[in-house]
Amino acid sequence: MDSAGREELVRRSIEAWNADDWEEQLEAIWSPEGTIVSPEGWPESGEFTGWPAMVEQWRRIKGSWAEERVDAVNVESIGERVLVDLRWTMRGDASGAPLEVDVAMVCEFEGERLSRMTYFLDRDGALEAAEASE
User: Fold this and answer.
1) What digits encode the pLDDT tens for the residues 60-86?
2) CATH fold of the domain at 3-131
3) ∠ at Cα 33 (107, 47), nearest 5°?
4) Cross-strand pairs, 46
5) What SS3 class is residue 3?
């Protein structure tokens, strides 16, 4: 898959996330052995490997908010990886308080599917990770 295809796959993954489309879209986009890595210092940080573990973690994250949405601010290919700047907009379930967080993620691929997303609280760390093996 070329860089445009990888970037499009990431955009489709974000759209599916926002639509809560686990079974039809996200499962088709992700490798069954995929891994998501939460940023250091994040509640419940760590690695979540395999489709059931990833879905469980995603549902836990989404369940913490009355509303939430992720928007890609910037998507760029760096070698075989894709670096994405994200804006995560949420509204607290109990408090109703709004919150907006900028994060970055580095996406890796296995064939035609996403295989790993590593999240960072700062873009510099994400850029360094994306360039690490290039």
Assistant:
1) 888 888 899 999 999 999 999 999 999
2) Nuclear Transport Factor 2; Chain: A, (3.10.450)
3) 65
4) none
5) helix
- As given in the structure block, the two tokens for residue 6 are 């990888």
Q: Largest Cα–Cα distance of the chain, in whole Å?
A: 44
Among 107, 115, 8, 104, CA closest to 51: 115
Tokens of 123: 């873009």
* Other Cβ atoms within 10 Å of 34 Cβ, number: 22
Place of tokens 């974000």: 14
Burial pattern 69-78, b for ≥16 Cβ within 10 A else e, equals ebebeebebb
- Decide: 72 and 10 in contact? Cβ < 8 Å: yes
